Amino acid sequence: MLEVRKLSADHGQLRAVHELSLVLEPGQVHAVIGANGAGKSTLLRAIAGLHPPSSGSVLLDGEDITREPPEQRVTRGLCLVPEGRRLFSSLSVEENLLVGRHRAATGPWNLGKVYELFPWMRERRRQPATQLSGGEQQAVAIGRALVANPRMLLLDELSLGLSPKIVQQMYALMPRLLETGMAILLVEQDVSQAIRVASRLQCLLEGRTTLDGRPRDFTPAQIEAAYFGLREESE
Amino acid sequence: MRYIAGFIVILLAGVPYMLGPAVEQPLVTLFSLVAMASWWNLLAGFTGLTSFGQQAYLGVGAYGLYVLALAGIDPFVAIPLAAVLAGVVALPVSFPVLRLSGGHFAVATWVLAEIFRLSVTLSPAIGGNTGVSLPGISGYLPLLRQAVVYWWALAIAAGSVLAVWLLARGRYGLAARAVGDDPVTAASSGIRVARIRRWAYCLAAAGTGAVGALLFTHTLYVQPGSIFGVQYSVLMMFMVLIGGLGTIEGPVAGALIFFALQQTLAAHGPWYLVLLGAVAVAVTLFAPRGLWGHLGRPLFPIAHLQER
Amino acid sequence: MERRTLLKGLGLSALAATGCSTSIRGSGATGTDTIVIGFVSPQTGPLAGFASGDAFVVDTIRKTQAFAGGITSGGRKYTVEIVVKDTQSDPNRASQVARELILQNHADMIVTSSTPETTNPVATVCEAQGVPCVSAVVPWQAWYFARQADPAKPKPFTYTTMFFFGVEQFGGCFVPMWERVPNSKAVAGMFPNDADGNAFRGAWPDIIKDAGYTWVDGGSYTNGTTDYSSMISKFKEEDCEIFINAPIPPDFNTMWKQAAQQGFKPRLATVAKVLLFPADTVALGDLVNNIATDSWWGPYMPYTSSLDGSTAKALADAYQTASGKQWLQTLGSTYSLFEVAHQAFTAVDAPHDRKAVAALLQKMSYAGISGPLDWTKGPVPGVAIQQPVGVQWKKGTDFPYEMVVVDNSLNPAVPVGADLTPTNP
């Protein structure tokens, strides 16, 4: 179980995340939505250990990992698929996956399983990662995180820069991941995709939570209001 | 192909018997270039650490050898010890410099080399600015000494290429290349970035230190202004860039190209430096992956594939 | 068994076991009818000022009958080849060209000149390779001690010799000049924090005290300093009327200009390491007037060539005619290097016998264009001492400023050319 308690994070003078809390349990998809600059990515990066928080704490199975370096969180089963894929440009497809295996936990995932999930990848595994299309790169990025056998998968802006069809394919994968008992923390601008898969929805505005609960409990208008911060004005 | 490389090394080992010092001399220079470039490539090509201060460890190697030889150890026995010394010196140094990256790292390493140079200049006990001669070689006949220097040079060059290759094709190499590409993502993929960089820095320092010690046994005289000169870093960068960054063959090819240019153009005085610059610019523009990266097939593959 | 010998023994026996040392190919003396002399000096780079007359001197030497007609040695005639190499002012390169001369040109002797950065690497290579070598224009302490395996326990060299002078001659040359100018007996010293500066800072105080003067240290500064105000005001406070230094030339130019502006006008300036050559005087203009320094060679020396009997003046004049430039001190030194080589090769039975040539160099004594040089009486084996004279830069007839002898205390054979004039009246 991943727990975030009153986490704050700054970009210089600017507070990007303001005392945010959330809980992620196995088998769940927790979607964090919000407009550009709402602090979603910063939150995710702080959880992954890439952005030092200014206050608050991150707990994994009750253990405080707030100050742990990112690589150590990977061995604990916390893996990030970063925004913009960020594949290693001088490495081949398979080498990118092997980097993910570097400090992998034992579990169901390995390179063979990833190749089963994306059959095209096996044939192209010797190609430089830079020769792939955006959607293919996203698949490799997901594969790179999966082979580490995470218990908590952090997905940052999965749909960014991809065609709707590819986005749909990516989201179609999610049930298969959840089957293995994995939990997913999703950061997304594309609200409609997020709502479809999420078991819990959290909307951020300027670093604060404006909405938090099960997606079916909210009307589209409520979500829209929370997303754009229109509540006060409409009342 | 690798067997051919091994055969060439064995063939080269026979040079002192077949061709004598007139051929050994330029080859020692070539071998030291190959070793220097290989270690610089481990830093810049694989781990993404563009250092401008590797001359610091040439100096530590050379002066380390001086101190060891002064203590009565045979200079040729002391070469590996001097290399280890350079690696050990690099360890505490790595903590401040590796906090930096990119241009800041490059400048910091350069400044560090200058600090090393100044410290030697201001230490009369190790010759100060005037420099020192290598002690402990009077027991060797000139012919034998030159041959031993040559064999050491060959061993250091072949050993450096082999060591960097083994590192690059191993688990370490994959992690290092990931760190070189994108340290943040590497960290979030579970790679201990600081440790990978520290190993690269210290190993490159030790390798470069061995070259420094070797150069001292070759020239028999060392002076801080020369051994700590930034031109060595420029040279390493030149060779690796024109040869092919991040490949095993690149630094070797770069060293050969540089050596050939130097031998043919040196007669034209300073113009040869202008020409070298022009070659570097042309290669960077038209073959950014270096000449080997464009033309050659890897003889020493570093690609990782899952066994199956 | 001592550890050192043990280790050495291990290394050697390992090689011997594989039969290496016996069958390695050599490139020693070739036994031809040609004597090869290598000449190494810094003809380009920051030290090029020392060597600007070298090409002319080598040309002159080649044309002398003594060299052009060949050298007779052991009853056999040998042609002479002089191979000139440039160090580009880089010690590494110096070592490299010395090795080239030995391995590729099969040099029978290497002569080298100008600063430890040039002579020490060359001499080190020669000593290790067993090739006779003569150096010049390097303080003997820097040449002798810096190349020792253990400077505290110096051992004489076998193959390498030199001629020039040392730190003690500066005192012997400068103090008599101070004595001749009435002054406050306080000596201002400008010495940077570098090898030469620290060497002088170590040596001068004793000399100054023994001569009955007080020593005022301007403070250890870094080469390249641009503001000397505090140093200058200290010299003024202490009422210093004698000035000594050993800086790099651009720093002296800066300091001396600031001293003039800020009113520090010592009665006599006796400088070392700067203003050795005419080219150095240009930057200072008239501020160079009556600054004193040391001179180890010049047209005023009453010496003649051991090769053809021509005078020092003739050599200086020939250089000025050929180049259109003012004579410089290293002309005589470079010339004498070849005189020494000629002396050695004519005196041995076999010029390719390096041991014999080296042994002869160690005990040579002759007189040439640099005056008498005697290796039997050196402060240490392998060193012959020249006696410099005190000179001042004075307004000249052919050139803006010329060196004129004003004090010959160390070498009375040299005629005095003018009175010693205070630098600042």
Structure description:
Chain C: Pfam families: Peripla_BP_6. The complex is a heterotrimer of chains A (235), B (308) and C (425). Chain A has 235 residues and is an alpha/beta fold. Chain A has helices at 40-48, 70-75, 93-100, 111-117, 119-123, 134-146, 164-179, 191-197, 220-228, 231-234; strands spanning 2-11, 14-24, 29-34, 55-60, 63-64, 78-81, 152-156, 183-188, 200-205, 208-213. In chain A, 36% of the residues lie in helices and 26% in strands. In chain A, the strands form 2 sheets. Chain A has a 6-stranded mixed sheet, with helices on both faces. In chain A, strands 2-1-4-5 form a 4-stranded antiparallel sheet, with helices on one face. In chain A, helix 3 packs parallel to helix 6 (134-146). The longest helix of chain A is centred in the last third of the chain and has 16 residues, at 164-179. Chain A is globular and about 50 Å long. Chain A starts with a strand and ends with a helix. With 308 residues, chain B is mostly helical. Chain B has a two-stranded antiparallel sheet. In chain B, helix 3 crosses helix 13, helix 4 (55-70) packs across helix 5 (75-97) and helix 5 (75-97) packs antiparallel against helix 10 (193-219). The radius of gyration of chain B is 19 Å and the shape is globular. Chain C has 2 domains: 34-165 and 299-385, Response regulator (Rossmann fold, 3-Layer(aba) Sandwich), CATH 3.40.50; 168-294 and 389-407, Rossmann fold (3-Layer(aba) Sandwich). In chain C, the strands form 4 sheets. In chain C, strands 2-3-1-4-5-6-14 form a 7-stranded mixed sheet, with helices on both faces. Classes of the chains: A alpha/beta (235), B mainly alpha (308), C alpha/beta (425).
What portion of the residues of chain B fall into strands of 2 or more residues? under 5%
Give me the count of strands of chain B. Answer: 2
Bulk shape of chain B:
globular
Oligomer: heterotrimer
Q: What's the number of extended β-strand segments of chain A? A: 10
Let me know the largest β-sheet of chain B: 2 strands, antiparallel
Total count of helical runs of at least 4 residues of chain B? 15
End-to-end Cα distance of chain B, whole Å, is 23 Å
Overall body shape of chain A: globular
Q: Using only CA atoms, what is the Rg of chain A?
A: 17 Å
**Uncertain ranges of chain B:** none
Question: What's the helix-strand series of chain B?
Answer: HHHHHHEHHHHEHHHHH
Taking all Cα atoms into account, the compactness measure Rg of chain B is 19 Å
**Biggest sheet of chain A: strands side by side, in what order?**
6-7-8-3-9-10
Fold-level CATH name of chain A: Rossmann fold
Mean pLDDT of chain B: 90
Please bin the fraction of helical residues of chain B. over 70%
Number of helices in the DSSP assignment of chain A: 10
> What is the chain-wise order of helices and strands of chain A?
EEEHEEHEHHHHEHEHEEHH
